[in-house]
Amino acid sequence: MQQSRTLLSPKSFVAYCVWMGLGILSMLLPWALPLWALVGVAGIVLLWRERQSLPAERDLLLELLIQGEPELHKACTFVARLSSSNQAAALSPYLSAQILTPQSKLLTFTAPRVTLVPRDDSPAKDPRSGGGLQGTLTAHAQRLGFESFTEMTLEITSPGGLWTKQATMPLANPLSFRVSPALPPPSKERFRAIIAQQKILLTGNRQALRSRTRDQFHSLRPYQYPDPIKDLDAKKSAKYGKPMVRLFESLHQHRVIIALDVGRSTLGTIAGSPMFDYFVSSILSLARNAIHQKDSVSFVAFSSSVHCSIVQARSMRALLPLLRGEESVRPCEQETDYEVLTRFISQHGGSRSIVLVFSDVSRPATQKALLRALSPLCRKHLTVALGVSDAQRSLDYRILEDKTPSLLTPEAYWELFYSYHLDDSFVKFRSEVAHMGGAALQIPHTYWMGTTDRVYSLLRSSMRL
Questions:
Q1: For residue 332, is pLDDT > 60?
Q2: Among candidates 448, 435, 442, 439, which has minimal Cα distance to 419?
Q3: Exposure string (b/e) for 30-47, b if CB count within 10 Å is 16 or more?
Q4: Which of 63, 117, 187, 221 is the most buried (most CB within 10 A)?
Q5: Per-residue model confidence as pLDDT tens digits over 203-221
Q6: Nearest to 376 by CA among 336, 345, 348, 337
Q7: Positive or negative, the Cα torsion across 40, 42, 48, 50?
Q8: Is 86 helix (H, G, I), strand (E, B) or coil?
């Protein structure tokens, strides 16, 4: 809703005080009385003209654009543009306009307000052209999440500076964005350490998939080395007079199933941001890559039941509930039943899929429940359980940080012991999942996005082996 108010500026009160001083002088000098009256009439006319020069809210068009995708702990730039929506009521070239930075839960703006200047892409850069104004807002992302700006506060000063109008105006196109983690790719040594002992990622899955059934028939094409001999179609080869092979859907495109645990275990925070937002950022990036490569993407958010499901999406539009962080995909105070995931994949997974499960795999209770659910999945699908961890709370970081054990407090000793316990539990869990033919990864938050994208690429490549 538009809210506006028009007030006299401090300059108006200064002019009023000068006029009153002239009036006092006219009481002492009679010849100054006509001058005082003339100045008063001129001042009233000037105030009226100045008031009329202020544009009406209905004639203004306010836009806010973002340059690039905001990343955590990095600067991002917004561009605010003000123009006239009525050609018959163009902006006065002498108006002064400022934008007040919006209130944000995720961003910290470097300045509380920004002055708008003539646009560089206007027909002429001369401010008298009336081609529109724009200003640049700089902010730093402090935490992950989704946010939307629907309105901003605009402050316009008349050409003479006597009137100021402050209006809260709706944006022509509401701006929505999601702050994502940064994308530094891990080094080769670091990546090898993260996927250590995960045979499905290191050597592919040729042996694991050799005995599994194919997907449905897709098309025919002439034989090309090294096509398998068992794919030759004898009847079509005789018909066309050359060897013809059958192509299956699994060789043409892949099914990707992304499962998000929204139970109690994912209510925690990582480095000041919700764990859920780390998961969502990675899921959106993976889905974008999969759809770009013509794969179908299925998504399920579950705890004790299915909260939200999307089956075989072919565009990012289907994942809008996840992008916006709607209530149906947010964590809740419920224990997770991983059998719900098993039933969903048995219905929508086909004969072979890439299954990515996002959960807090650092918790021993979660590991125990996941093992029961992953056992049937790993026999049929390429299955990877993914979790994010705080890099500054990892065992490796604590060992490097705690260089003087004699100075550690009891609380620090307990945290170090607990880190050893969690690390030992995850190593055992990772080994058991690898023995079943799957993989389990716990990725530091500093390498989260770069590692998950690379893991998906390895899985997709192994499907073609």
A1: yes
A2: 442
A3: eebeeebeebeeebeeeb
A4: 63
A5: 544 444 444 445 555 568 8
A6: 345
A7: negative
A8: coil
DSSP assignment of 264-313: GGG--EETTEEHHHHHHHHHHHHHHHHHHTT-EEEEEEESSSEEEEEEEE
* Domain boundaries, given as residue ranges, for the chain: 1-179, 188-211+253-463, 217-249
Please report where in the chains the tokens 């105030």 appear, as a residue.
Answer: 47
Tell me the HSE value of 296 on the side-chain side, using a 13 A CA sphere. 16
> By C-alpha distance, which of 441, 451, 37, 3 is closest to 200?
441
Which pLDDT does position 209 carry in this prediction? 45
Overall average pLDDT of the 116-125 stretch: 64
Full-model pTM: 0.76
Distance CA 201, CA 454 (A): 10
| 188 vs 48: CA distance, rounded Å | 71
Continuous segment of H or E residues that includes residue 427: helix 410-436
413 three-state secondary structure: helix
pLDDT of residue 465: 43
Number of CB atoms found within 10 A of residue 204's CB: 18
Q: Calculate the dihedral angle through the C-alpha atoms of 158, 159, 162, 166, rounding to the nearest 10 degrees.
A: 20
Residue 260 makes CB contacts below 8 A (sequence gap 6+) with: 279, 280, 283, 299, 300, 301, 302, 322, 329, 358
| 188-211+253-463 homologous superfamily | von Willebrand factor, type A domain (3.40.50.410)
Task: Find all residues with CB under 8 Å of 359, minimum gap 6, and list them.
Answer: 261, 265, 266, 336, 366, 370, 385, 386, 387
Tokens, residue 250:
């699994």
Neighbours of 432 (CB within 10 A): 16
Which residues lie below 8 Å from residue 88, measured CB to CB, with a gap of 6+?
Answer: none
CA distances from 145 to 137, 243, 431 (A): 20, 55, 33
DSSP string, 112-177: SEEE-EE-TTSS-SSGGG---EEEEEEEEE-S-EEEEEEEEEEEEE-TTSSEEEEEEEEEEEEEEE
Residue % of the chain over a pLDDT of 70:
83
Reference 36, options 121, 44, 148, 61; nearest CA is 44
Q: Which residue matches tokens 């543009």? A: 81
Length of the chain: 465
Task: Tell me the two tokens of residue 360.
Answer: 């807090």
Peptide bond into 226 cis (omega under 30): yes
> What token pair was written down for 221?
């094409």
Q: How many CB atoms lie within 10 A of CB 417?
A: 10
442 closest CA partner among 428, 460, 430 = 430
